[in-house]
Amino acid sequence: MKSFDSLFAELAQRIAERPEGSGTVAAFDKGIHHLGKKINEEAGEVWIAAEYQSDEELSEEISQLLYWTQVMMHKRGLSLDDVYRYL
Ligand SMILES: N=c1c2ncn([C@@H]3O[C@H](COP(=O)(O)OP(=O)(O)OP(=O)(O)O)[C@@H](O)[C@H]3O)c2ncn1[C@@H]1O[C@H](COP(=O)(O)O)[C@@H](O)[C@H]1O
């Protein structure tokens, strides 16, 4: 089972190794503006799912929001500890 920390490490590896066909690498290269829009979009989908959809659908939307937030963290060069210190 993947965790927040293991996904973060996996994304770091993808971004460093740039494997062919990686959506993460393509999104990373598009930049902050693109990533910000994805975060906004997924946050809206989390809200709608929480209001109207099943626990399963909500869980999937939350996973996508976490993913896009992590890509943004990598784009800005933040570590997990940079964020965890505020939790
Ligand atoms: N966990 C995720 C993940 N969550 C969300 N996404 C992306 O976010 C999109 C969210 O879907 P939407 O609901 O917005 O659907 P969509 O509008 O059809 O998507 P787009 O057309 O906007 O891409 C998905 O299509 C994926 O592109 C993810 N992309 C990758 N991962 C994981 O990241 C790792 C690296 O994967 P690569 O990107 O293939 O290197 C792997 O473990 C993947 O499982």
TrEMBL record:
GO terms for molecular function: ATP binding; phosphoribosyl-ATP diphosphatase activity. Its main location: cytoplasm. It is found in: Cytoplasm. InterPro entries: HisE, PRib-ATP_PPHydrolase-like. One of its GO terms (biological process) is L-histidine biosynthetic process. Its EC number is 3.6.1.31. It catalyses: 1-(5-phospho-beta-D-ribosyl)-ATP + H2O = 1-(5-phospho-beta-D-ribosyl)-5'-AMP + diphosphate + H(+). One of its GO terms (cellular component) is cytoplasm. The gene is hisE. Pfam families: PRA-PH. Belongs to the PRA-PH family. Keywords: Amino-acid biosynthesis, ATP-binding, Cytoplasm, Histidine biosynthesis, Hydrolase, Nucleotide-binding. This is Phosphoribosyl-ATP pyrophosphatase. Pathway: Amino-acid biosynthesis; L-histidine biosynthesis; L-histidine from 5-phospho-alpha-D-ribose 1-diphosphate: step 2/9. It comes from Dietzia timorensis.
